[in-house]
Structure formats: structure tokens, C-alpha cells
TrEMBL record:
Keyword field contains Transmembrane helix: no
Residue ranges of every copy of the HTH tetR-type domain listed in the record: 16-76
Identification of the protein by name: ScbR family autoregulator-binding transcription factor
Domain of life from the UniProt record: Bacteria
One Pfam family here: TetR_C_45
Length: 213
């Protein structure tokens, strides 16, 4: 019985590794080619696996793209502990730094204009990130960091839209190297209009804050 359990665990671990390998290869291919330009053949070749191995874990490239888009928020963990308004700031700055070399985030950035081909609007990356921002801003408003008359859902949408536009322009103009600076600039403009005076004085805002040591 112990031997059978051990073999089952080894098989499960191998399956998890294979799934992760396929997902990473897909992220790299999507980041380079976009959704329309990617193919399951390119993905399996990048992963060094057979088509059968890929189809065992993912039904098609649409399923792979959905997996990558849905995983975006989970991949962004700020290096500093924070909550509320500071956490909203830290999330965007961490995303801006990680986007430079994380294939999953790069794939998400490339796929942003093609999401209607593989995922519904109710769960696309815009909606996911808006919910993340809205939760932080709602907590900030409850803790009197954000002014009482501020529509936190509207601000959350604004932040996501601004970050999306910033990464597109940064991609064209600097290879995204100045994306953290652009996100910092956005908060410098936005914070005085939404934060309470006491919170504004406490916020730590510099483009290196989202960068891991």
C-alpha cells in the first residue's frame, strides 16, 4: 500500500510539473506572438513536450490563455507588508517591476487587447485588477485614508485603465523600462484628489518600492 501511495504521489508531482511547464511555455509564446500568432505546436515545441502531453492538461490554446490571464493577480505580491491605500500603490508598483521579466505578466500585457477571443468580459484581466483595486480602496475609505465622497469603484477602474495605457506606451517608447516611473507619476497626480490629508502624509510613494530586494 505504501509503495502504491508513493508511486501515485510521484505521478501527481510529475503531472504538476508538466502542467507548469506547458503554462510557462505558453506564456512565453503568447508574450512573443500574441494570441492569434501563437499555436499549440509552437507552445509544445517551446516546452519540449508532445501534443498529447499538452492536451492532457489543456483542451486548447484558449484554455491556456484563460489560465494565464486568471493567474495574473496571484503572481503579484508586494515585497513590503501594507494594507488599504498603501497596498493599492504597492500592488501597481510591484506589477510594474515584475512585468519587465515575468513571462506570465508579459503574456497578460500582450493578450490584453485579444481577450475577447478566449475569455468573457466578466472575468478578463481588467475586471480582475479592478476588483483587487476596489477592495484595497474600500478598506482605505473605511479606515479614513480615502475621502468619504470618493467613488472607489470608479477610481479602481481609473487606476486599471491608467496602468494598462501606461504599459502600452512604455512598451512602445522604452521597452517598458520606465513603467515604474509612469505608475509613480500616476499616483502623484491621483493621490491628492482621493486621499485624506493625514493619509497623504503617510503614503510611501517611490518607484523602487515595488522592487524586490
Amino acid at each position: 500500500m505504501a509503495e502504491l501511495t508513493g508511486k501515485r504521489e510521484v505521478k501527481q508531482e510529475r503531472a504538476v510539473r508538466t502542467r507548469a511547464l506547458v503554462a510557462r511555455a505558453a506564456a512565453e509564446v503568447f508574450a512573443e506572438c500574441g494570441f492569434a500568432g501563437a499555436s499549440v505546436t509552437k507552445i509544445t515545441q517551446r516546452a519540449g513536450l508532445t501534443l498529447g502531453a499538452m492536451y492532457f492538461h489543456f483542451e486548447n490554446k484558449e484554455a491556456l490563455a484563460r489560465e494565464i490571464v486568471r493567474s495574473q493577480p496571484d503572481r503579484v505580491t508586494p515585497p513590503h507588508e501594507s494594507r488599504g491605500l498603501q497596498h493599492a500603490i504597492d500592488i501597481t508598483l510591484t506589477w510594474a517591476h515584475q512585468l519587465l521579466d515575468d513571462p506570465f505578466l508579459l503574456a497578460g500585457a500582450r493578450l490584453v487587447m485579444e481577450q475577447d477571443l478566449f475569455i468573457g468580459p466578466e472575468e478578463n484581466s481588467h475586471q480582475q485588477w479592478t476588483e483587487v483595486m476596489a477592495q484595497d480602496l474600500a478598506l482605505a475609505q473605511k479606515e479614513r485614508e480615502v475621502r468619504a465622497n470618493v467613488d472607489v469603484n470608479a477610481v479602481a477602474r481609473l487606476v486599471v485603465n491608467a496602468c494598462t495605457g501606461a504599459q502600452m506606451h512604455a512598451h512602445l517608447e522604452s521597452g517598458r523600462r520606465d513603467l515604474p516611473q509612469r505608475v509613480t507619476e500616476m499616483w502623484n497626480v491621483l493621490l491628492p484628489t482621493i486621499a485624506t490629508p493625514s493619509a497623504l502624509n503617510r503614503m510611501r510613494l517611490d518607484e523602487s518600492r515595488g522592487k524586490s530586494a
